[in-house]
Amino acid sequence: MLSAVVVAFAIFGAASTDSIAKDGALAPDVKGWYHLSPTEPCIASTMCNEQGTEVCTVNDEPGQQLFRKTANTACEITLYRPID
After folding, report:
1. Consecutive sets of 10 residues in the chain, 84 residues long: mean pLDDT of each?
2. Which class for 65: exposed (0-12), middle (13-18), buried (19 or more C-beta within 10 A)?
3. Residue 68: what pLDDT?
4. What are the start-end ranges of the E strands in the chain?
5. Nearest 5 degrees, angle CA 32-CA 22-CA 50?
């Protein structure tokens, strides 16, 4: 009987720890990219994040918005300033 209780606590503890890790995890920073023109490949710039509220820009100054690179010439997914 005691071993069944220990196993039940172990399963419950593992499940609750896994849900805490998923809920509190931040997305990793990714390289932000931009286009000089639609016909040219993307150019790498500042590190950004897929989560946040402030749009990521070149050198964190207003201006050129940065995107996540999805293919050789596609920079379409909005990125945000990294969360500290």
Report:
1. 45 41 69 85 90 89 86 82 82
2. middle
3. 92
4. 30-34, 43-48, 67-69, 75-78
5. 15
Angle ∠(29,71,31) on CA atoms, nearest 5: 20
Residue 32 identity: G
For 13, phi and psi rounded to 5 degrees? -65, -40
3-state helix vs strand vs coil in the chain, percent to 5? 30, 25, 40
- Cβ-contact 35, 65 below 8 angstroms: no
pLDDT at 24: 56
CA dist 47 and 25 (Å) reads: 18
